[in-house]
TrEMBL record:
Origin: domain of life: Eukaryota
Role this protein plays: Involved in pre-mRNA splicing as component of the spliceosome.
Source organism (scientific name): Loxia curvirostra (Red crossbill)
Protein's recorded name: Pre-mRNA-splicing factor SYF2
Pfam families named in the record: SYF2 (PF08231)
Comp. bias regions, Acidic residues: 13-23
UniProt-listed InterPro entries: mRNA_splic_SYF2
Location(s) in or outside the cell: Nucleus
The keyword Ribonucleoprotein appears for this protein: no
Positions of the UniProt region annotated as Disordered: 1-35
Length: 247
């Protein structure tokens, strides 16, 4: 019994202490507000520290970007794309598939049409600018038409050996005989050039010996058109007038 009374007394004292803690006084409330302010201050301090850290990291990254070449981003994207293409080629080779065919299956009709329009605009014919540019365009056009015959190349290499690669001491002049297919290709290309050249128009030179039958430039153009359309019908009348035998 004395033990139970002592235990009850201890429980009552603990309940009184809990009640005192549940009803804080003015000093306890001030201490809580102070702790809350300190906590918020620590949070603001940590946020400021994180902001300074991120800002310094961004400054370092920006300095690195400024030191890189101006087209580094494009080069990086190009290299990443090439790596992806290589990986896809390896995967297709492992599966026994053709990479070009797989790539075309992934292209939409809109993309194909856009690429085709872009390809047509890539090399527009700007007309004649100078002889050097015309020669370069002709060279590029001819080289695009070249389709190497590897079988014929292997045969020539077996036939001539090291002499196929001429040096200053080589004597291959007159030994090469072109094939019939090569001659036909050359003839077809020359005929295309002649046909295209006939479509060009150039300014006709002025003929000092021609008869002057006009009073100004406009009248000369009119007479040329009239001669073009009605010259064959009035040729005899004009001859009679010149001979003085016209009736």
């Amino acid at each position: 019994l004395p033990g139970l009374l002592a235990e009850c007394g201890s429980l009552q004292s603990e309940e009184e202490e809990e009640e005192e803690e549940a009803e804080p006084g003015p000093s306890a409330a001030a201490e809580q507000r102070r702790e809350e302010r300190l906590r918020r201050f620590r949070e603001l301090h940590m946020k400021r520290y994180e902001a300074c850290k991120l800002n310094s990291q961004e400054v370092v990254e920006e300095d690195k970007r400024l030191k890189l070449p101006p087209n580094w981003e494009a080069k990086k994207a190009r290299l990443e794309w090439e790596l992806q293409v290589q990986e896809k080629k390896k995967e297709c080779a492992a599966r026994g598939e053709d990479y070009e065919r797989v790539k075309l299956l992934e292209v939409s009709a809109e993309d194909a049409e856009r690429w085709e329009r872009k390809r047509k605009k890539k090399n527009p014919d700007l007309g004649f600018s100078d002889y050097a540019a015309a020669q370069l365009r002709q060279y590029q056009r001819l080289t695009r038409q070249i389709k190497p015959d590897l079988e014929q190349y292997e045969k020539l290499k077996e036939q001539h050996g090291e002499a196929l690669y001429p040096t200053s001491d080589s004597l291959l002049h007159g030994t090469h005989v072109p094939s019939k297919e090569g001659v036909d290709r050359m003839v077809a290309d020359l005929e295309k050039q002649i046909e295209k050249r006939e479509k060009y128009s150039r300014r006709r030179p002025y003929n000092d010996d021609a008869d002057i039958d006009y009073i100004n430039e406009r009248n000369a153009k009119f007479n040329q058109k009239a001669e073009r359309f009605y010259g064959k019908y009035t040729a005899e009348i004009k001859q009679n007038l010149e001979r003085g035998t016209a009736v």
